[in-house]
Amino acid sequence: MASGDVVAELGYLQKLDLYRHEKPFQIFIPIDDGQRQTNLEFEPRTQKIVDIRPNIKSFQLDAQGFEVRECPTAVSYESFQNEELIKSQYLPEIEEELKFIEDGYDRIFFFDWRVCTPFVFANNTSCTYRQAGRCKHIDNFIDAR
After folding, report:
1. Can you give the pTM of this predicted structure?
2. Of 26, 56, 116, 117, whose CA is between 20 and 30 Å from 134?
């Protein structure tokens, strides 16, 4: 695996007037009545991506909003395309690991656990189900402590 900082092109959500009265959205289930599945429009921007691996232990959930943990799993790499195995084995493993975080949680809810697979990024291509996170995004957390 390569190391060091890299420069890459990422898709950023455009600042459209539409978003003043309609929240950006994307629906991940089929809609048969001709309604839009998304109103997302992206623009490519060049961004420096910093390699955090040399400082990996310095990130803390309460200070930076994230931390990096090594979580061994019994699920093989090839099995990550099996949704039932992810639900029945992998997510419970992660739930147990998260309970060991300082001031741990009694209840954990997996809001979005989609499996990423490679795809080709193009302008104005919305993030579809099961693709790699090439679009800059913010994860959602509910403080359930």
Report:
1. 0.55
2. 56
